[in-house]
Amino acid sequence: MFTGIIEAVGSLRRVTPRGGDARLVIDVAGLDLTDASVGDSIAVNGVCLTAVELQSGAFAADVSAETLSRSTLGALGVGASLNLELAMRPTTRLGGHLVSGHVDGVGEIVERRADARSVRFVLRAPDRLARYIAEKGSICVDGISLTVNDVDGARFDINIVPHTLEKTTLGQARVGQSVNLEVDVIARYLERLLLGDGAAREGGAITRELLARHGYLTDTD
Question: DSSP of 75-129, one letter per residue?
């Protein structure tokens, strides 16, 4: 598990295709790996990767075809900047929110504008993820724990303060750029819990009838 508080911005040193998968070598910049071991989890742009080799100032990780298809890692070029975070310890302050490092989908930055000393981004999430994104809820964008300011359908906006702009890759993010999204894990489990026994049936899904039965909709909705 992670907190979504970025510890360093590294870069992609090398990509080696391996029969549909890939091995990445990542320069860690200021990330302290002195107490890291092979087998440890490291979040890379919000993707939980397992370190299979530790080098001086770098680590290697194997990335499956599933992860390459569900995240932006497969499209990154050598030299790309990467948000890095080591797995949290039991004593870590939870400054962000609980982040699993399991990317739910890829979103797109559709607007960037100045907002006093901060920057306001508007992002578009895949339609299937929109129901998990709530105003003032939490979302993880490229590994960064952020608060959702407003939601409009599948679009939502986030406000990035100067410190986050300086310490993460969002400072260089541009309109049209793809980003990894992980919704709040509580929202995902709540959906399954609402399905009850229906979760075990193929095709089980949240419907208006189900929401009404549990009191989430009224006759006027």
Answer: GPPTT-EEEEEEPPPTTS--SS--B-----EEEEEEEEEEETTEEEEEEE--GGG
